[in-house]
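Before the break, one more example. Copy the sequence into your notebook; we will annotate it together after we see the structure.
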Amino acid sequence: MDILNDTICRQLILEAGKMMGMAYAPYSGFKVGAALLTASREIYTGCNIENAAFSPTVCAERTAFFKAISEGEREFAAIAIIGGKDGIPTGYTAPCGVCRQVMAEFCSPQDFYVILARSEGDYRKYRLEELFPLGFSPENLKKD
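Here is what the structure looks like once it is written out:
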């Protein structure tokens, strides 16, 4: 069975949508939720958390990753992301560059999927390598 079949994608999007409702975004009003699927099929969720000083703000994707990593997870299959102004999804919300860099630290760009969703039935699935071509990863630091 395909680990990322339509049923799994919809489940991840549903969980991400719930987290969008938990976002703390009083400054931008742009709320984002994420649901991260591990290789062992566990789901970790996150939402964006803004800060008045802006640079301490953390994205939903990194929240989900850091929760999973802090619990000992190191292998990931996919992440679903949904977001929009005032919590209303109107377009596909792609991860920022910092989140893509975090994904590249822990995920195979060829095997990790990023699901961008407007709803459970309206989503697009990309490999990380499509969203982050020529990304810097731990492979760059290995000696030949």
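Helices lie at 6-20, 60-70, 97-106, 128-131. Residues 78 and 96 are 16 Å apart (CA to CA). Try to locate both features in your own notes.
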